[in-house]
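User: Quick one: structure for sequence A, then sequence B.

Assistant: Sequence A:
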Amino acid sequence: MIAAAPPGAGRAIARWVPDCDARTTQYVVVAAGPEETYRAVLDANLAESRAARALMALGRAPEWIRSRLRGERLAPVAGRESRLRDVVAGDTPWTVLVDDPGSELVLGLLWTPPAGGAKRPTAEWRAFAEPGFAKVAWGFSIASRPGGGTLLTTETRTSANDAATRRRFRLVWLATAPFAALLRRLALEAIRAEAEGRRSS
């Protein structure tokens, strides 16, 4: 079962984006321990399903339009494999804000709606207040369940730095929120399958 997360889900992410213009939470119960679940968060192929790849491509539509208007070349998509371990370790727009193995992982993006962004070191991320940007934090919270297994929660928080950016974000959010929610559900399913597959093997 995947549903809206229970109250109190996610702890570290709220310290990075305490006041948000949009907040979404979903969770899944995983028949594996916290350590196995944490490793699965990093190692699961989030682009394994055709639906996930289609949604990822749809999410890049604003970047594609901007690049065409500017006559720029857009970097190719990742293809049939996309793992958070590569996002954490690679040269991507995401900044690792919290990495507490077996407990929480929080990534941050400084976004210029509807496309583009900037990257800052973790130490500078919280205080970044340049107009034109929205802070996006994407977190995974992992907690043992009293009856066994693990509760895995994903939460996304977005907060614009100024009123004009907030208006642009809200327009984008109206169009993309249902697709983003479906992509998160597919990501949770992929992580659960990875964690439970590790346990059975």
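Sequence B:
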Amino acid sequence: MPGTQKGLAYKRVLLKLSGEALLGEKTFGIDRDFADYIAGEIRDVHDLGLEIAAVVGGGNIFRGVSDSAQGMDRVSADHMGMLATVINALALQDALERAQCFTRVLSAIEMQEVCEPFIRRRAIRHMEKGRVTIFAAGTGNPYFSTDTAAALRAMEVKAEVILKATKVDGIYDADPMKHPDAKRFDSLTYREVLQKGLRVMDTTAISLCMDNHLPIIVYDLKGKGNLRRIVEGETIGTLVKE
């Protein structure tokens, strides 16, 4: 169970993880060692008393708009992507429970034998009871990304911020992996993200956050302790707000 929340900058947050985050050093599937690392980062902040939920993508297994889905019906491909997120959610749950964290997976697509259906009040109650809550299957609808699902779920459970964990230490004006001279931003407004076409989250997710005044912090997942530093109020990564 979580401890006190003394000294934390937030009471309740939503962590957005891409499916690729679970790849670790692999090229496909789930790297158990890296899943354990993520679980350790989450447990570290959970033990401080933070209420935390997570949305995980499915790109390490299947992505509806990827090359592998070319020629498929978009709705069928997106449904396959949603099921991939359930696999990842269960993998993250397993890692968290091995780290002694009580966890619940709530899916937008009902599958009673595997996880609970997403019910907003139940999700909030799980968080209030100190359980790490993982939201799977996106929004349950095709044409909506897991970024949009993260924005939607964050607002539904009244999270104060979305923490988007990535491979880089913030938002850049170009891909820093390909352009070493890319400029990093310390902070941006939602409109700047949209106008500059920055690939932080898709435009639907950014617009949803903008309309509902929900800040986003983009940070480096591989920086050990970054998650804890953010929730304790340190300036890490790039902040997107009004």
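Residues 10 and 231 are 6 Å apart (CA to CA). The chain has one domain: 12-241.

User: Thanks, that's what I needed.
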